[in-house]
Write a structure and sequence with these properties.
single chain, mainly beta, Methylamine Dehydrogenase, Chain H, 5-stranded antiparallel β-sheet, 30 strands, 55% strand
Length: 314
C-alpha cells in the first residue's frame, strides 16, 4: 500500500460574487467515484472503483483515516444509515450490496440485488435502503432493501439507466433520475409504486433536495443545465444553465447549490437564487460531491487524478 499523503495545489478560481473558494487535494486509490458522509462519526467514505477499496476521510482535518477497507468488487454507490452504524456499498459487476460495520469495517452481509447496481440511498428513519440498478436491458430497477434483515423486500421497474436517487425528509417519497429516458420517477415508498414520471433535461445524472424538501434539483449532463422541480405538484418550473456535463450536485443548509461540471473539470457554487457565485478548476474527471456537516467544505472525487478535492466554501 502506498503511503497516504496530503497534496496541496494552487487553486485556479473564478470568483463572481461573495463566495470565496479555495482548494487542496487528498491522494486516493484508483478511480474514486461516489462519496457518503457519516454524520454520527463525522467521517466521509469514498468508493474507489478500480482498486476495490473504500477510503475514509476526516472532514475536519482533511486527511485520510487509517487504511482503506475492502467492500467488494467494483464498489460504486455508497450510503450510511442515519444511526451511523452501517455502510451500504454497491458492487457493480457482481450485482451485490455489501453491508459493512461502520465501527470496525467488518463485512456484515452480502445482499443480492439487480443487474449493475449503480447507487444506493437510505431512508431518513433508516429502515429501508433503495438500490438503483442499470440493468442489462432497456429497463432499470429499484430494489427496496430492509436494513435490518438485509433482504430485498420489493422490486420496482423504472426508466432507462437509473442512477442517482433522493428520499424526501419524511421518507414517504423516493425520487430516481433515469438518464436514458430523461425523467425523474416519483415513487410512493409505502405503496411501492410509481406516482409520476417527470420530464427533465437530457441525460439527468444527479439529484438533490432543497433544505426544506420542497424543491428537487436535477443535474442534466446532456443539456448542461439544472432542472428545478416543485415537489408540491411534481412539475419542472425552470431550467438553469450551468457548465459542461453537470454530473452531481449537493445543496447546503443555506440553500447554496454546489454543482460538479465534469466536462469542464470545474465545480460551481450557485447562490440560493441559482445565480452563479463562484467556479473553480478542480482536476480531471470530477464526479461526485459531498458536503461536510457544517457546509464549510465540499469534497469532490477526481476519477482520473485518483484524488479527492477539498474545497473551502466559507
Amino acid at each position: 500500500m502506498k503511503r497516504m499523503l496530503l497534496v496541496l495545489l494552487p487553486a485556479l478560481i473564478f470568483v463572481l460574487a461573495a463566495a470565496p473558494v479555495s482548494m487542496k487535494t487528498i491522494k486516493m486509490g484508483k478511480a474514486p467515484y461516489f462519496t457518503a458522509l457519516n454524520p454520527v462519526r463525522n467521517l466521509i467514505y469514498v468508493t474507489n472503483f478500480a482498486s476495490d477499496e473504500v477510503w475514509v476521510v476526516d472532514p475536519a482535518t482533511h486527511t485520510t483515516v487509517g487504511r482503506p477497507f475492502y467492500a467488494g468488487v467494483e464498489p460504486l454507490g455508497i450510503a450510511v444509515s442515519p444511526a451511523g452504524d452501517k455502510i451500504f456499498v454497491t458492487n457493480m459487476g457482481p450485482g451485490l450490496v455489501k453491508v459493512v460495520n461502520a465501527k470496525d469495517y467488518a463485512l456484515l452481509d452480502d445482499i443480492k440485488v439487480g443487474a449493475t447496481p449503480s447507487n444506493v440511498v437510505v431512508s431518513p428513519k433508516g429502515s429501508m435502503a433503495f438500490v438503483t440498478n442499470f440493468g442489462k436491458g432497456k429497463i432499470g430497477r429499484v430494489d427496496f432493501v430492509d436494513t435490518t434483515s438485509h433482504r430485498v423486500v420489493a422490486e420496482l421497474e423504472v426508466g432507462i439507466r437509473p442512477l442517482a436517487a433522493a428520499v424526501s425528509p419524511a421518507g414517504d417519497f423516493l425520487y430516481v433520475v433515469c438518464g436514458g429516458s430523461n425523467e425523474v420517477y416519483a415513487i410512493d415508498v409505502a405503496g411501492k409504486k410509481i406516482v409520476q414520471q417527470i420530464p427533465v433535461g437530457i441525460t439527468p445524472d444527479g439529484v438533490a433536495l432543497s433544505p426544506d424538501g420542497n424543491t428537487l434539483y436535477v443535474a442534466n449532463s446532456g443539456s448542461n443545465d439544472l432542472s428545478v422541480i416543485d415537489l408540491v405538484d411534481n412539475t419542472e418550473k425552470k431550467r438553469v444553465p450551468v457548465g459542461n456535463s453537470p454530473f452531481s450536485l449537493a445543496v447546503a443548509s443555506n440553500g447554496r447549490v454546489v454543482v460538479v461540471e465534469t466536462g469542464d473539470s470545474t465545480v460551481s457554487v450557485l447562490n440560493p437564487d441559482l445565480q452563479k457565485a463562484a467556479s473553480i478548476k478542480v482536476g480531471k474527471q470530477p464526479i461526485d460531491v459531498c458536503l461536510s456537516s457544517d457546509d464549510k467544505f465540499a469534497f469532490v472525487t477526481l476519477e482520473k487524478d485518483n484524488k479527492l478535492a477539498v474545497l473551502t466554501l466559507q
